[in-house]
Amino acid sequence: MRDPWARDALRGIAPDADVLLVGAGLTAVDVALALTCGPRGGQLVSISRRGLAPQSHRRSGATPGALDAGALVDAMGDTLRRQWRVLREHFAARSARGEDWRDVIGALRPHTPALWQRLSSADRARFLRHARPHWEALRHRCAPSAHDAYRQLVDDGRLEVRAARIVAVEPRSDGRLDVTLKRRGMPDVERLAVDHLVNCTGPSSDLRRCASPLVRDLLDAGWISADPLGLGLQVSHGYAVIGRDGLPTPRLSYIGPLLKARDWEATAVPELRQHAWTLAQRLLAP
Fold first, then answer.
1. What's the Cα-to-Cα distance from 166 to each of 22, 155, 170, 172, 281, rounded to whole Å?
2. How many angstroms separate the Cα of 21 from the Cα of each of 4, 30, 74, 143, 199?
3. pLDDT in tens, 108-153
4. How many CA atoms lie within 13 A of 70 on its CB side?
5. Rounded CA gap, 133 and 40, in Å?
6. pLDDT value at position 105?
7. What is the C-alpha separation between 15 and 43, in angstroms, rounded?
8. Is 45 helix (H, G, I), strand (E, B) or coil?
9. Mode of pairing for the β-strands spanning 19-22 and 189-194
């Protein structure tokens, strides 16, 4: 399976090759647009559990609407059921007034860690199983021009997006791959013959499956511990890495995407900048 972020990852994929994109998020949008920038005759299919595609950012010139973020966060409570219900109610109310649902997502951005930390372990697992694809389609949006180009590919039949998962992959004697898919809501499996698989699901944050010798050594030595849900590192509120004994490791701190276990979202520059500032202040404190 090809890694789209590896150097020259898409080189060698012929215009007439049949390609399956595993994932339908922003990476899949980038890869689909890259593969169709010229003439293309091969089949291009993108799959994900729900078949959801990223939404577009706000169009240029549109004005953000006012929203009381504090009242919204207070109303969302500390259970997934309530948080999701309040979120949907706000979407519906703003749409009824002709306002933009993106204002709700934008207002929640600085409060996402607190909302995540309110949830129980069971609710976090429930979110990952059921709500995560919907959240990511709304939260991780693409530029309007890219979104328009991507939708045009779908409308023109040059890209097919399916709600499906891979059951098995078997190599064929002719060098192609037989992929067995299970469509969402369908009782039977189907088979798709492709020339290439491209992994568009993004890097895994599950340290238990990480091949890095450094990470493996730190885990084996007990200096770090993996989040039970496979979301990253166990890190204290002061950014100290939590070891196997459940205690913060005073000489080892962390900021970065693996904070997902603690904060859910920690990949965008504004959040990472704030994490870096807060940790620097802690390390410089007398």
1. 9, 24, 11, 17, 46
2. 10, 11, 40, 20, 6
3. 999 999 999 999 999 999 999 999 999 999 999 999 999 999 999 9
4. 0
5. 29
6. 92
7. 9
8. strand
9. unpaired
